[in-house]
């Protein structure tokens, strides 16, 4: 996955990376994301499979354990950076939103 | 009542929604997909049920994999967790089923889905596509180049035009598919980014790759036989069918023996090349030979040299031109080509070895042209490169020869050329251009021979 595509993360990408802040089986992410977002965000099994493969290729996550076919992963330093950049981007968006609407409120 | 039925795969493996609908309709009719082999989808009778199917693609899985790969097993486990059961696969295409009424789709990110789809194409059909585009373009270039280089081939291999046309169609279809796929991909990615959904690829995309390939290559091969023998066409068609079945069986056998995918792939590619080069071509020639009437010449020997003596009916004989009491000539129709552009035939009358000094011989090749506009081009080739135009060979050591035009009227022709050596002596060789044919005529005598108007008339009459 090219770095460009990681400039802006989709919700599914964001939560997949977030789930991997602590070591976690790939398979378990399927349940963690809906649990974390109160079912607001779901991720399909095929999508998760592709994302894990692409994140690992891009060095955003790394494999920590293989038990049979069960593999667990954890976020890498560059993965954390991407995640933090995304958070900053969202915060900036939120700040811009507030600035606009608070101005309107004052007027 | 049958409990099991098989439906052949239609090679349209990249029509995802079409396949999902097809499997769902089968389930509603009481046929549940159970698995697949290299040729068929296998269905088992069951209670008619409304179930959902989902088709997805894995880039690193091929038809050559003998068992489920690691990536397939991992994906299957992921899908199982969300209620999807793995049912069958065909190369990179993976089929899952669920009985849930409102299941979470396997693919929830349209952009990633398009990318996965593209990645699996890049591993399989795309390089093949490009390879066959290359082959088709090469086919066009080689055939056109050959025609321009040696226009005489217009008659000998006039079907090259048809082959160029067939290759042109093949290249156009392949390129059209390729371009329309990339256009679709670009639009779909943009659409997915903006709306979170996208329009499916048109049904035809990549779907009938192999079908196109075999049909068009086959068509080119078949068309190139037209005008030779109809048995050639049937032979090639059978060779292609038998070869295709052989390749499929070979892949199945490798899978059964659990051979490594790479070995299986290598052997299959080799078989495909062998099919094109090793089966189709020999079939054409063997069928040709089988239907050709075999003549059995009389074989004589002179000072250790073998000579074949024929007794064919030839249109123009030495006896038609001069009086001779020599009766040991060989009369041979030695060449014959035909195509929609015309016909080329040649005959020769040879004295037996050691007896030619007092007995002149004749050789001639007639080019009958169906399209007069080709005459100039063919005549030019014959004049420029005489040695390539027939079986007749100039004596060794001869270097400079040139054609000089003669009065065509006595010949009843439009143009006539005679070959002259640089020392001013004449060769008994003429190139006679009529409105509908060209004749290369050689009167092989030890001495210079100047035909009389009657003899010229005879040549024209006999070779018309």
Please give the count of helices of chain A: 4
The end-to-end span of chain B amounts to: 71 Å
Overall mean confidence score, pLDDT of chain B:
79
Shape, principal axes of CA atoms of chain A = elongated
Strand order of the largest sheet of chain B: 9-10-11-15-14-13-12
For this entry, what is the oligomeric state of its chains?
heterodimer
Order of helices and strands of chain B: EHEEEHEEHHHHHHHEEHEEEHEEEEH
- Evaluate the radius of gyration of chain B: 33 Å
Find the structural class of chain A using helix and strand composition: alpha+beta
Number of strands of chain A: 3
Q: Categorize the overall geometry of chain B.
A: elongated
**Spatial order of the strands forming the largest sheet of chain A:** 1-3-2
Largest sheet of chain A: 3 strands, antiparallel
Instruction: Considering residues with a beta carbon less than 8 A from a beta carbon on another chain, report the largest interface and each chain's count.
Output: A-B, 20 and 22 residues
Unreliable stretches of chain B (pLDDT < 50, length at least 5) are 387-399
Question: Ends of chain A: how far apart?
Answer: 46 Å
Biggest sheet record of chain B: 7 strands, antiparallel
Structural class of chain B: alpha+beta
Write the element-wise H/E pattern of chain A from the N-terminal end onward: HEHHEEH
Q: Kindly estimate the percentage of residues of chain A that lie in beta strands according to DSSP.
A: 5-15%
